[in-house]
Amino acid sequence: MGIEGIGASVLRKEDKRFITGKGRYTDDMVVPGMKHAVFVRSPYAHAKIVSIDTSEAEAMPGVIGILNGKQLTEDGIGNLICGWMVHSKDGSPMNMGAWRPLAQDTVRYVGDAVAIVVADTRAQARDAADLVNVEYEELPVVTGVEDALADGAPQIHPEAKNNLIFDWVLGDEQATADAFSKAAHVVKMDIVNNRLVPNAMEPRAALGVYDAAEDHYTCWTTSQNPHVARLVMSAFYNVAPENKLRVIAPDVGGGFGSKIYIYPEEIVCLWASKRTGVPVKWNCDRTEAFLTDAHGRDHVTHAEMAFDADHHILGLKVETKANLGAYMSLFSSATPTYLYATLLSGQYNIPAIHANVKAIYTNTAPVDAYRGAGRPEATYVMERMMETAARQLGVSPPELRRKNFIRSFPHQTPVIMTYDTGDFEASLNAAMQEIDYNGFAARRADSESRGKKRGIGMSCYIEACGIAPSAAVGSLGAGVGLWESAEVRVNAVGTIEILTGSHSHGQGHETTFAQLVAERFGVGIDSVNIVHGDTDKVQMGMGTYGSRSGAVGMSAIVKALDKVEAKAKKIAAHLMEADEGDIVIENGELKVAGTDKTLPWFQMALAAYTAHNLPSGMEPGLKEGAFYDPSNFTFPAGCYICEVEVDPDTGKTEILNFVAADDFGNIINPMIVEGQVHGGLAQGIGQALLEGCHYDPQTGQLITASYMDYTMPRADDLPSFQISHQTTPCPGNPLGIKGCGEAGAIGSPPAVINAITDAIGTNGLSMPASPQKVWAALHNA
Fold first, then answer.
1. β-pairing, 653-663 with 722-725?
2. 62, 238, 616, 738: which is deepest, by most CB within 10 A?
């Protein structure tokens, strides 16, 4: 390892521009003639659109145009789609209702867009939008999954009878029933995973530009995967041919999954630019973000776990109702199915598992992947069940887990996944040692002496990252392959450009990707430039989500680096009259092993482009590309332990200590990984203690639509985290990487709730565990 290579905690290159205000986000983009857009949105959760009168609004100063769904349909713009096909247990395809970018006949949630106003300034557009008179005929509303499935419930889409999108199963039902018939103990729980709003620091934005001279469209957008956005907008939404559409995702201020999807606003801004003849920019305000960003989680689950007399798990049954909101978002069908049920084995050797998932429409914002995407929901089910089982069986929570850990790899679970490697006990041991688990009884006694209640809880999580290989996900219904691409360009003076299909929106790619090059060629990371986020510069890519940038994106870079290295050694061997097999690359030089012959990296690069003295038949230049499609998912895993103190008079919970012991495989930059874990823990603890998205069940109004009502975690809500790493390299990719970006949000919620319920002595507690809920649970126990 060099000081800037793999394993070095290099400071992030990109942070200089971010902390000095030099970042360039979509809102910073200005083009000649640019105008501003505001969307007219439905104030009703379910209603027929009777009429739209724009006459008064059109007379307002600065208004360029007001467009509606009828015009959009007339111009042939298509419906938004869900890109992952799921079939019900009877073999029928999922019931996907129509989602128009601008609602034409019916609105189905508060915030559904019905028109766009384009004006000289944003203030003028907002004033005009307030004067667009939309006459609605209100319809009955349903917001909860149980009510949505009930006979006589409001029908949200004609395609989905009783609002059921699919009724999907995974696992062997008969084998699971047989396992339960032999059980000495059965643990049962009803579990709710609360709905969340992603709340990225930068709200969504879009700038659509139509060039009539070239018949070409450009879209700047806050996207995690601009190439997929271009593909979908051209192939399915009919916005423009792919070769006539450029999508640019510049600096993006966080995403957490919510910026994977193509939303109505990008489509409409591009279409409106052509229709009005001016560039159209839209910026989402925070209230719009609460109303219209894809929400996360929202599962209602009944789970049962069977044990034999020796406390080995025999089987698991899970029934989940997943609220997908008013429309199916791009990957919404995959989140409660293949990203959730396939991880229900957790870290445990469970012979038989059966899962049944019903996905349901409601009059709420669409729900899709949010940091962890199905894995947090699965872990919450498993780890609440394991902690509860330990209490009911009268055994130690860590010992029950040890007894059931998977210890031999590869391990085929009953729910599709084949775990390639791991050492779950190592993470458990490390976490218990770090938190001084054996000394907890004394600390609890100290709390009791002060009138407080202390509890400890753990969570042993596993996740599947990389979301690949393409053939596998294709067979499961994915509409795209999930490989990644890379191109390495060595310039004539030896500087290097890495073009990647991965996208950075806070992960530090400009640093970690450069570290790969520094490790390989011994050049400084300042001489390496990372290019991403522009479909005119990078031919194709799948973007960033599912902790795939390291395991998949970096692996593609490694394949391209292999090709560059091979050619560079051929050139150096020719110039130094040596055997190619004797060439080594160290500290920015190509050397002949065992001699003093050296060739600086820049001289080799210059020779490649002057082409005066290349090996016979070699093409000039030094540029190579690669695609990487992994052979399996990666499986990060770990153990989190949380220790809390609860004030019985107020119900307030204080996290006294939190330990995270993770196995991410090999790590490129430990500092960046630690930052990723910290961020994930903040979000997971936020879900456990504070965050919750609530709709009025009568009106469908979002009653947590601002930071006055939706509680975000603050610095004083969080402890100083204790982080450690146990490493079992992933055998499935060239770097041995597993992924780290989502782990904190996956493993922390059950650890927190397990700790609080241990403190208060009752298991009946749901997230978020607000002081009011904790106080009520404690005093009603």
1. parallel
2. 738
